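Structure, all two chains, one model.
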Amino acid sequence: MTVSAPPPPQSPQPPAGPTAAPRPAGGRRWPTAVASLVLLALLMFAQSFRFPSDVAVTEPMVASGDASATVDAGSFTVRVEEVRFAKAVGDGSEDSALSDFAPEPDYIEAKGVWVVVFLDVTSTDRQLTRFESRLDSGDKNVYASTPWLHNAFGSIGDGFPPGIPIRGATAFEVPEKALKDPVVQVTISTGIDKRLSGEAHVKLGLSGDELKKAIEGAEETLDVPEPRMQKV
Amino acid sequence: MSVLAVALALTGLWAAGGFEASKSTDFRDVEPGGLVRNSLLELKLHEAAFSQDPNTGAHTLQVRADIKSRFNEPVPVSNISGMIDPRFGRKDLSASAMRMSLTRQPDRSVFELQPEVPEEAVLTWQLTDDDPDAGPKKAEEIFDEEDLLEPDDVSEQVAAVDRVKVTVTGAEYDAGFTDQTKRWWGDTNTRGIVYLPIDEE
């Protein structure tokens, strides 16, 4: 006769005690953790959509285009009519019967070359007064327009009445080597505060050999005319 | 042993002035015409002279300099003026409101420095009889002056001065003042001190 020991309990009893209760719940906890992580990741991703600063929120809104068409910057439109290169520029006198007798303009020689951009500017719905322009050379530098010409846009007396195109010029003194694929940047506003005003970036469409030829063929002198209202 | 080393190091540190920012600027002396750089400018100050505005009679200090901006956008001259500080070592003579013109266009003012274009410039400051270390004036002080528009007569001080100490500070591109738009500011670091003899006009 063999006496066998009573078999050990087959069904594994859940260990008694307070630690037993959360076990099954623990199995269901991982989806929550994963969901939390996913949501956190989404939150961080959403953060990247935030404007980097409150400056960016009120910065001029840029509309880009090229010289072949009118660029609509919201508060104004701008169209590049002509780009001319010159070794020296001066304020041209008004065309009249007497202009032959006017003194020769005081020409300013460029260190580099003058890039003179002729523009038609039309304010959309209210009088704008302050014109500012810069030239992105397409290399890496941005140049300010010259303050030395009274006739160029950007002087104190500028006025852009709504709906009337004004043709005028803005001039940049730029080292020849810096010019690669120039873009003229125009903002027109009503005061010193440019915030929320429009800004147009117009690609002049000059690069490579065409640009080189244009620079080599720069005029000796160029008279910059006063801004003039155009017929609508 | 290590305690001794630490003690020695601390003693050395204490003797050298501790963690206080170094105030010594002797080693930053630059000869006239020597290159001074900060993160915005490359500057060579060549010579200085007193002169008088033919229209207003105001006394001015003029410094001839080679100047080049290292930034890729135009920089207003008004932002640079805080980085170049001329002093005469007197309490009754100070230079303010820097203007700039180029020697190739002496009659035209320059308001913005173009990127990476080296220029020979004339920097012009107006001279006043204020204390250069005094804080900004109160409105009453400004309007109490009898001749508000009359320039200060500093001919006596000018006659007694024969050199100017020009301090060039560091530059930082930072937001501030009117809004969060970034612009260039002078900082408190000294990048170079140039002593320029002043030619009598």
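Chain B has one domain: 29-199.
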